Amino acid sequence: MNSFQLANESSPLSLTPNFILPEHKRPNLSQVTSLDSIPIIDLSYYDENNPSSLEVVHKISKACGEFGFFQIVNHGVPEQVCNNMMKAITSLFELPPEEREHLSSTDHTKNVRLVNFCLKVEGGEKVKMWSECFSHFWYPIDDIIHLLPEQIGTQYREAFTDYAKEIGSLVKRLLSLISIGLGLEEDFLLKKVGEQPRLRAQANFYPPCPDPELTMGLQEHTDFNAITVLLQSEISGLQVNKDGKWISIPCIPNAFVINLADQIEVLSNGRYKSVLHRAVTNTVHPRVSMAMFYGPNPNTSIGPIQELIDEEHPIKFRNYRFSEFVEEYYKPERTGKTVKENFKLEDK
Ligand SMILES: O=C(O)CCC(=O)C(=O)O
Ligand SMILES: [Fe+2]
Question: Rounded distance, CA 127 to CA 104, Å?
Answer without folding.
Answer: 18
